[in-house]
Amino acid sequence: MKRWLGKAEVVLGNHSDRLNAINIFPVADGDTGTNLYLTVRAAVTALGGTATDAAETGNDVGALLSRAGQAAMEQARGNSGTLFAVFLCAAAEPLVGKSRLSAPLLATALNRAQIRAWSALSEPVAGTMLSVLEAAAHAAQAVDASQSGDDSNHALGLSLDAVVEAAYQAVVRTEDELAQLHEARVVDAGGVGMLLVLDCLRAAVLGEELQDELLDGLHGYKMQDPHIHEHMPADDGVEVMCTINLSPLNAAILRQRLDEMGESVIMSQVGGAQSSDDDDDESGVEVSYRWRVHVHVPDPEPAVALIRSLGEPTDIAVSQLAIPRDNEPASQESSGGANGSGIEAVNVPGQSRHEF
After folding, report:
1. At what angle do helices 32-46 and 61-74 cross, to 10 degrees?
2. Which end of the chain, N or C, is less surrounded by CB atoms within 10 Å?
3. Whole-angstrom Cα distance, residue 68 to residue 334?
């Protein structure tokens, strides 16, 4: 699993420019590759100091992926990065306590992940990373059924082959599932990113190389192809992200009001329930959950005010959605303080710096 995530970090770093080039949905901000890379990097970094984990956890695959997923969720970037973090956290759950991956477990993990990813978005859209993940999950389930729950390495290999092939076919279909992609004759950038992640899993488990030929026929993905997003109309507004502890009721309120206020609302839990008991009466205990929040809004101030009215957010990050019209370099690191409920002005390739 460590080898998988490490491979994914390298591959997404190498492919980030082409993923950015075809990123036009939901907004043409040209940052999908960068966001996926930085989010996966956060997951890998979280596992960097875990050399003794094998002795301490008994090679618990799920525990390791859960740690990586929570780190990815806390530092997720953009729509694509947030959905990848949701995928990783959800996939880890059925694997907790397991020392190895098998075809039945892969089918269960991918199904859990695709359900959680679809539900994280207020308005999920087909023809995106969601469709690719769904197709991969269905393929894993079909192989598991045909193999009658065989947990051998051979069955796992068959399942991974089918998962990557189904993901590839789903990526190809994205071009005709979304009007914006069909008009521009490109496939979905987030979908390609998920395809790469799944092929990295296959390569890591089977000890094989990536199937680079999968990318040859994808429209817009050749090195000589132009950066499609640069010719799209500029998108006004900003992206607001943060992490916050909320009760179930306040989480529902926040989602509803953000839906009314903006677009691309993603809310997903980070970890389990937390309780705050100020007295000894159990009936007075208020259970809350840690949430990662993402939204596109015209103006950050009302969204930030709403979030703060319901809790104490940490690491609020605000970045402009407008695509750059020059080649001025930008740092991949977020700038500004990340203390308490402070706000970061994120400086990401494909975005201009926004001070708040």
Report:
1. 130
2. C
3. 20
- Hey, how many other C-beta atoms are within 10 angstroms of the C-beta on 312? 10
Structure tokens at 137: 């999950």
The string of pLDDT tens digits covering residues 206-245 is: 999 998 888 888 887 876 565 555 555 556 788 899 999 9
Token pair in block for residue 173 = 């279909």
The Cα–Cα gap between 59 and 100 comes to 8
Element (H, E) at 96: none
Q: Which residue has the tokens 């956290």?
A: 89
Closest by CA to 120, choosing from 87, 78, 77, 151, is: 87
Distance CA(181)–CA(240), nearest Å, equals 25
Closest alpha carbon to 32 in 213, 199, 221, 274: 221
pLDDT in tens, 99-145: 999 999 999 999 999 999 999 998 899 999 999 999 999 999 999 99
CA distances from 350 to 14, 23, 216, 319, 325 (A): 16, 10, 25, 10, 9
Residue found by looking up tokens 């082409």 in the block: 18
- Smallest CA-to-CA distance from 102 within 58, 64, 140 is with 140
Angle, helices 32-46 vs 189-206, to 10°: value is 40
Q: Which two tokens stand for residue 245?
A: 């502890």
- Which residues are within 8 A (CB) of 185 and not within 5 positions of it... i.e. 6 or more apart? 175, 219, 220
What single string gives the DSSP state of each residue in 226-292? --GGGGSPPPPSEEEEEEEEE-HHHHHHHHHHHHHH-EEEEEEEEEEEEEE-SSS-GGGPEEEEEEE
Q: Which three-class secondary structure state does DSSP give residue 15?
A: helix
Angle, vertex CA 183, rays to CA 328 and CA 264, nearest 5: 65
DSSP assignment string, 289-334: EEEEEEEEES-HHHHHHHHHHHS--EEEEEEE-SPPSS-----SS-
The Cα–Cα gap between 347 and 352 comes to 6
In angstroms, what CA-CA distances link 158 with 109, 139, 152, 334? 16, 10, 10, 41
Give CA separation, 133 vs 74, 87, 151, 170, 260, in Å. 21, 9, 22, 9, 28
